[in-house]
Amino acid sequence: MAALAVNGGVKVVGPATHTEAYLESKPMKETRALVSELCRQFYTLGWVSGTGGSITIKVHDDSIPKPQQLILMSPSGTLSLTVYLLSEICNSSPLYVYAGIWIGVQKERMEPEDMYVLSGNGSILSSPSPKPYPHKPPKCSDCAPLFMKAYEMRDAGAVIHSHGMESCLVTMLNPMSKEFRITHMEMIKGIKGHGYYDELVVPIIENTAYENELTDSLTKAIHGKLSYRIDPNTVKPVMASSITSFQTNAYPSNLTNIEAYPKTTAVLVRNHGIYVWGDSWINAKTQAECYHYLFDAAIKLHQLGLDWSTPSHGPLQNGKGVSGRNGNLNMSTNALTADSNYDSNLLPRCIVLDIEGTTTPISFVTEVLFPYARDNVGRHLSATYDTSETQDDIKLLRSQVQDDLQKGVIGAVPIPSDDAGKEEVIAALVTNVDAMMKADRKITALKQLQGHIWRTGFESHELEGVVFDDVPEALEKWHALGIKVYIYSSGSRLAQRLIFGNSKYGDLRKYLSGFFDTAVGNKRETQSYVEISQSLGVDKPSEILFVTDVYQEATAAKAAGLEVVISVRPGNGPLPENHGFKTINSFSEI
């Protein structure tokens, strides 16, 4: 190993003839400049003032596999910046370059050369040379293990660590909460995989005295296929003058039961800040901006006595029911008031509703929606055949049909390749879809296509959502009481939104906090309700009330610990004798 100087102040340890050329490369210089620019911008936003805040970025290159793209990272006590770049030095294993400014360099004055460079195994290839007083000696960042978790477990392209005031205060609104939840806010659309009507859930982990001790909690929150834990006893950055390696000693951790937040793109640290990641620096930056906006909105709604976690952001619920800033809440349409006889301690925290036979007559599904979808399969596929959405539908159907053919499912016929021509493919698809619908199969491939066909019908006003007359008033009442209401149906989430968003009573989605479909699991399987319970973040499953008309679904939900009542509506099928469940004929009985 040899030491040499480059850029007039960077000490390099490593194979000199290769490392120097790499550090002088155009991609590295451009990324260093980008990091400096973002550092100044984030400083003005208040994300990285004082000693806090960080960002890591991977440099995109189509010719380089993403896992082989490298990094830049800053030390503890200042803004941490990490950039992954490719280096193929003597055919060695891919290198990860961590670059960072040292303690004492102000974030708004950071220069491209104020950075550390590390290899993928933790060996420091380059460290900044100490600057004169009052600057302190350089020290590598304590955030390194946390950054690596997002890259290893989520295939991130960039990670931002912010100490923005709103990201700190929002974790204090409810000191006992392990999650931040918000819904029906436009900026939710800026978070990957979320829309306006979705409920955004961000896990909250507890702060520790030292940043690297957060690694285990962060790992549990973001959970990959194989979780690894960084041993905090061996992650000890020391002064750059003596360090030659950043030891991580990762080893498998017993986290196989932690799967609560597999899709999250952020983790809040209580009284501290937030880590946000994305597949590129632009995506991570956009999401970070949206998260900070949503946190700020929640804080301001809280100050107004309003609940940011419910669809209409009504008055917050207190220990004795619901109250506004003056302690009283007036509700319309025969709804409740704060001095009602309702005991909030007896109310469920969440209600999960089935659709067919529960909120909506079975006849609407069997005599209106199903026939519409069946009659328009060919027309829909023909009109939208070349769109990415329909091609995705066809891909799912091909996979399902292939599986059906192997299992000998009646009605399944082979779907020819695209070479056979559009008309031949569509004809085979229509035949398979018709057979699936006649068998009333609850499969994602069918439900997704049906949802897209129904969307056309609702948009053209050929279809209108139907719910029982007692449903709108009950939804309004529960919403006013602070009870979150969700839908769980075998129909796609799109189809669910269409029914409630286009009903004869208007748009009822404002009363709904979220939607579940068969992607969470079959409705007759207990594990599906376990997954829903974990997603809703309740302390115990019994805080959820599930309402359905199907005995097998009720049995599965009860086995998962949920409270269950069975809906008895006109046109519903008979129930087994001595089924053991409470029944209702109207939501007013709940």
TrEMBL record:
| Residue sites binding substrate 2 per the record | S489, S490, K523
Region of interest called Enolase-phosphatase E1, as start-end residue ranges on this chain: 351-590
UniProt source species: Xanthoceras sorbifolium
Which cofactors go with this protein? Mg(2+); Zn(2+)
Binding of Mg(2+): at which residues? Answer: D354, E356, D549
Q: Mind telling me which InterPro entries this protein's record contains?
A: Aldolase_II/adducin_N, Aldolase_II/adducin_N_sf, Enolase-ppase_E1, HAD-like_sf, HAD_sf, MtnB_viridiplantae, Salvage_MtnB_euk
Under CDD domains, the record lists: HAD_EP
Q: How is the cofactor bound?
A: Binds 1 Mg(2+) ion per subunit.
Its EC number is 4.2.1.109, 3.1.3.77
Q: Where is this region: Methylthioribulose-1-phosphate dehydratase?
A: 1-307
Q: Where does substrate 1 bind?
A: C143
Please give the name of this protein: Probable bifunctional methylthioribulose-1-phosphate dehydratase/enolase-phosphatase E1
